[in-house]
Amino acid sequence: GAVVSQHPSWVICKSGTSVKIECRSLDFQATTMFWYRQFPKQSLMLMATSNEGSKATYEQGVEKDKFLINHASLTLSTLTVTSAHPEDSSFYICSGKREYEQFFGPGTRLTVL
Amino acid sequence: DAKTTQPPSMDCAEGRAANLPCNHSTISGNEYVYWYRQIHSQGPQYIIHGLKNNETNEMASLIITEDRKSSTLILPHATLRDTAVYYCIVRVAGGTGNQFYFGTGTSLTVIP
Questions:
Q1: Is residue A52 scored above 90 in pLDDT?
Q2: In the Cβ-directed half-sphere of B69, how many Cα atoms lie within 13 Å?
């Protein structure tokens, strides 16, 4: 199967700082990657669709200036949470699209103090 | 995208078949049914998908009703490691998006 990695697996930061999360497709090229957020005991919520070489498409209600997405290569997409606040604490999961499948990364646990 | 409805939780005895239902009564003709599962604090894992025919792989079987308004995921011999949240998703094939919109899922507990 296709493998997607995320880095870091967990991060703790102070309120007001920015945090970058990397999502890599290790054995396939992903022209499209997706970013999700998951709060405790809730389902995954799609945040944005990231297409290589173009601007990301954000879901309604997701602030594009707060959650910066860059998809500069076919194997790497990054999500930067800018000026993080405690309410941004969550589990962030990415996925890479190959044909009609999505392969998910292991997730990144963000805690903002 | 069509929405799905799943029971919030189910129990299954170890070694028995687990049958997880999903209702997708507003599904369109070109939408596939996908099943993923998520073990606590991990990314979702693909299980199986289908359009209108029943499907089987090494993990599970997918039974889709003739009218495609519902489906059932079958884990033939549940083990403790199958304890997870199972998500049923419908998605349009083709195009540039192929987004997945997750519902609330079914929390399956396999009991020894």
A1: no
A2: 3
Pick A102's closest partner by Cβ from B94, B100, B104.
Answer: B100
User: Token digits for B30?
Assistant: 């070109």
The CA distance from A92 to A105, in Å, is: 9
* pLDDT above 70: residue B85: yes
- Whether residue B32 and residue A100 make contact (CB cut-off 8 A), yes or no, is yes
What does chain A come to in residues? 113
Chain B residues whose beta carbon lies within 8 Å of the beta carbon of residue A49:
97, 99
The answer to whether the CB atoms of A43 and B105 lie below 8 A apart is yes
The enclosing H or E element of A20 equals: strand A19-25
CB-CB contact of B24 with B2 (8 Å): yes
Report, as an integer, the average pLDDT of B8-18. 97
pLDDT at B91 over 80: yes
Mean pLDDT to the nearest integer, B62-81: 96
Phi, psi of A13 (to 5 degrees): -140, 165
Contact residues, chain B, for A104 at CB < 8 Å: 36, 43-45
**A91 contacts on B by Cβ (under 8 Å):** 41
